[in-house]
Amino acid sequence: MQVLVIEDDKDMAAFISKVLSEVGHSVDTASDGEMGLRLAREGQFDALIVDRMLPEKDGLTLVQEFRDGGGTVPVLFLSALGEVDHRVEGLKVGADDYLAKPFAPSELAARLDALARRQMGDTPVTHLRVGDLEMDLLGRKVTRAGQKIDLQPREFRLLEYLMRHAGQVVTRTMLLEKVWDYHFDPQTNVIDVHISRLRGKIDKGFDEALLHTVRGAGYRLQA
Fold first, then answer.
1. Are the C-beta atoms of 135 and 96 separated by less than 8 Å?
2. Is the alpha carbon torsion for 28, 33, 38, 40 positive or negative?
């Protein structure tokens, strides 16, 4: 996801950017409300994270004007003002969610993902793309730079899961549960074998590697 963080506290903005970057999101920042509103209107963002107390234009006014101007991007307020009345005010001007400071990084990431899912609605996804790698879910076809890639059923399922979570770190436990339907660790190298085969098919012979190993964490598919 491409996320715009509108936060005047430089340390907090850097911390939020670090948290989101670690789970695969791309982050831009704005340090005041006027700049934030301008970037929100001009940029192609998937979500906005907005502090309430901003210089030049406060967060409530920013979101109100963004919505009045037709902005539909999901908005998450992230503020030290966390009382019920504050949260209600934020939601009334058009925010989709409200998280009070201090917050757990994992909760911030989870709430952002929830906003993305809500924005997508119930429209079925039939085509996935990461860089020049494309997957046709209906035709069960995979191509990279226009070249057809033949995958076994399990490899297809593995790649589909990685593409659906592009830019995010996918752990071995997640793969075991979602791709192999294991709810325990079989103590085998089945994931390593399939990742190696998949990497050989989608990366070998191309200038840019898409499938990356994140040491001690898992894997990330990212252009």
1. no
2. positive
The b/e string for 61-91 (b: 16+ C-beta within 10 A; e otherwise) is ebbebbeeeebebbbbbbbebbeeebbebbe
Q: CA 105 to CA 154: how far, in whole Å?
A: 33
Signed CA dihedral, 103, 81, 15, 73: sign only: positive
Q: Compute the distance between CA of residue 205 and CA of residue 193 in angstroms, rounded to an integer.
A: 19
Cα(33)–Cα(6) distance, rounded to whole angstroms? 7
Find which of 50-54, 167-171, 173-177 is predicted with most confidence, using mean pLDDT: 50-54
Q: Cα–Cα distances in Å, from 106 out to 20, 58, 71, 92, 97? A: 10, 26, 27, 26, 15
Which residue segments constitute the domains of the chain, with CATH numbers given? 2-120 (3.40.50.2300), 127-221 (1.10.10.10)
For tokens 């790649």, name the residue: 159
Q: Kindly report the pTM of this predicted structure.
A: 0.55
pLDDT digits (tens, 9 = 90+) for 156-165: 999 999 998 8
Integer angstrom CA distances of residue 52 from 20, 25, 30, 49: 20, 22, 13, 10
Q: Are 5 and 30 contacting, i.e. CB atoms less than 8 angstroms apart?
A: yes
Contact 24, 169 (CB under 8 A): yes
